[in-house]
Amino acid sequence: MPALALKGQRRMKHCESYAVVLKHDPELFRITVLDNQLGKVRALFFGAASPGMIVRVHINTKTHMPQLSLFEIMAAPMTLARCDIWWFHMMLALIDLSVPLGSGIGPLYEQLAWLCYEDIPLDKQLQMRYCAKIMTTLGLQRALNQLCAPCMHALQVTSVDNLGSIPLDSECSSRLAQWVIGSIEEQVGSSLVAYMHTNK
Length: 200
What we know:
The chain is an alpha+beta fold and 200 residues long.
């Protein structure tokens, strides 16, 4: 863990909050969450949780490594985990890889929490729209071969619950998946792209 990130986590205080589980490694007693007050936090955790769950937690950051205690499971997106598991976990992995410790508060948390609370099956077009929304929120859109300016603006300003109603240009709509994959490959790396192709 980078020294600055560790110092940032040490400065945090005790906090009861809500968080989305990004990753859980029970063998190492580690969990990574996107917390609505502290942003991304990597912590010791001795309970049971699954990626995508929204949980009410207490995070103690006065120790060498933050410790997370689970109070309540607020939501568990069973539909997404059952029907769209590759896509859902790819989104969680993208956020985990891209967001530094202590970041992600605000729009990113709200968008991810909406997805996990709603727990709705999404067709391929909506999946790509949601991916594109996350990419623009993270600032990971590719520098070249952009979508047209009106479509980019629409993705940036439209709330996540209205993504299905964006009137994307027909050309942009047809190459949205290619744009998402290209952005991930350019900004994050090819490993997630390989994961997408393997698990389609």
